């Protein structure tokens, strides 16, 4: 609970959030169908969160061709054209809690309020994302199609 409050405060300080409520995740298969926020995802904001060191910093591990961000990592799979392979609901689950699919994954669970023991020290209580931030990321990644690369 203390972690959740800390994360909420962190998000409030860095991002404009419409709500600080943690919404329940309803997992269906390998997807989360319902949005995690009432805020409509914006691909432009998602791109910024994806690249920004102080928010998602997804480029630490993932590369997207055409994205204007230096030093893109390759610890995780390249996400160019990910919108061809995964639905928005599947992308949402992988950002919210990738450990549901692979308990050993090194990808941080960005929408968990407990069970954070697998998260690297550097990320603990710091880079967890709000529901709105995740919706922006989903909007950004879902429109990455191979014909756009
Ligand atoms: C510490 C490294 C790391 C970071 C940071 C990270 N990821 Fe990942 N991600 C991975 C790895 C590794 C996988 C492969 C899944 C597995 O481990 O089973 C993955 C998988 C994914 C997938 C599924 C890809 C596919 O082809 O199925 C998506 C989508 C994704 N990550 C999005 C993100 C987003 C968005 C962020 C930032 C909020 C992020 N990741 C941050 C390591 C990372």
Order of helices and strands: HEEHHHH
List ligands, each type once. Answer: heme C
- Rg (CA only): 14 Å
Which fold does the CATH topology refer to? Cytochrome Bc1 Complex, Chain D, domain 2
Shape: globular
Mean of all residue-level pLDDT scores: 81
CATH architecture heading? Orthogonal Bundle
Number of domains: 1
Number of H- or I-type helical stretches: 5
- Helix fraction, binned, reads 25-40%
- What is the SS-derived class? mainly alpha
Task: Identify the strand order in the major beta sheet.
Answer: 1-2
Distance between the termini: 42 Å
Poorly predicted runs are 9-21
Give a short account of the largest sheet. 2 strands, antiparallel
Strand content: under 5%
CATH superfamily, by name, is: Cytochrome c-like domain
Kindly describe this structure.
The protein is an all-alpha fold. It has helices at residues 2-14, 43-51, 82-85, 88-97, 131-142, and strands at 27-28, 31-32. Helices cover 32% and strands 3% of the residues. The protein has a two-stranded antiparallel sheet. It is globular. The site of heme C has 23 residues, from helix 4 and helix 5.
């Amino acid at each position: 609970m203390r972690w959740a409050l800390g994360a909420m405060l962190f998000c409030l300080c860095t991002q404009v959030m419409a709500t600080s409520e943690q919404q329940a995740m309803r997992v269906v298969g390998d997807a989360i169908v319902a949005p995690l926020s009432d805020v409509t995802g914006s691909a432009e904001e998602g791109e910024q969160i994806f690249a920004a060191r102080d928010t998602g910093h997804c480029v630490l591990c993932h590369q997207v061709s055409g994205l204007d961000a230096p030093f893109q990592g390759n610890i995780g799979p390249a996400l160019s054209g990910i919108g061809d392979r995964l639905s928005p609901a599947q992308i949402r689950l992988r950002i919210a809690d990738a450990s549901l699919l692979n308990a050993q994954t090194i990808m941080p669970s960005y929408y968990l309020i407990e069970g954070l023991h697998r998260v690297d020290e550097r990320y603990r209580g710091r880079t967890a994302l709000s529901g709105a931030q995740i919706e922006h990321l989903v909007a950004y990644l879902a429109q990455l199609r191979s014909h756009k690369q």
